[in-house]
Model the fold of this input.
Amino acid sequence: MTTTKNQTTITAQPGTPFIDMVREFDATPQVVYRASTDPELIPKWMGPRGLDTRIDAYDLRPGGNYRYVQTDADGNEFAFRGIFHTVEPGLRTIQTFEFEGMPGFVTLEYGTYEDLGGRTRFTGHSVYPSVEARDGALQMDMESGMRESMERLEELLPGLG
Done:
C-alpha cells in the first residue's frame, strides 16, 4: 500500500442532512475524473478493501443510470444505484445514490474536480433526505469505506497519467 500525504476530510455537521468530503490527488482533474467515472476502473477502487465490486449498469450521461454490487468474502451482496443528472467531464457530476438495502433513502451527490495546477481537489457533497438518514449512514461505518475508497483511488492514479 502506498503511503500518502493526502488525507480525506469528511465533515458531517450536527443537525444537518449533509456529508462533505474533500481529498486532494497528485493527478490532473481529467485523470481523477476518468478514474472516477470509467466503469472499467471503478471496481479497482470503489469500496472498502476486501469487497469486490461489479458494475451492472453504467450510462454516464444526464438521465443515465448506474448500478453496482459489492460482495464480501461470505458472498453477501450490497447493491447501489442512481441516476446521473449533470455530467461535465473533468469538472463535476451530480447524481442520486441509493443503497438498495434501504429503499427510499435517496441521496443527492455533487462531485467537483478542482484544478490545482496538475493536482486535483475532489469535493463531494451529499444531501440526505433527513438528518436521521444521514446519521444512519454514518452509523453503518460508511465513513471508513469512503476513506478506503479514496486511498485506493489514489493508488490507482499513477498508472493512468
